[in-house]
Amino acid sequence: MFPDRLVEGYRDFLTGRFADERARYADLAETGQSPQIMVIGCVDSRVSPEVIFNAAPGELLVVRNVANLVPAYEPDGDTQHGTSAALEFGVQALKVKHIVVLGHARCGGIRAFADEASPLSPGDFIGRWMSQIAPAAAALGPRDPQDEVGWRTKLEFASVELSLENLMTFPCVRTLVARGRLALHGAYFGIASGRLLARDPRTGSFEPVGQSVPSRRALLHCV
Ligand SMILES: [Zn+2]
Question: Helix (H, G, I), strand (E, B), or coil: what is residue 60?
Answer without folding.
Answer: strand
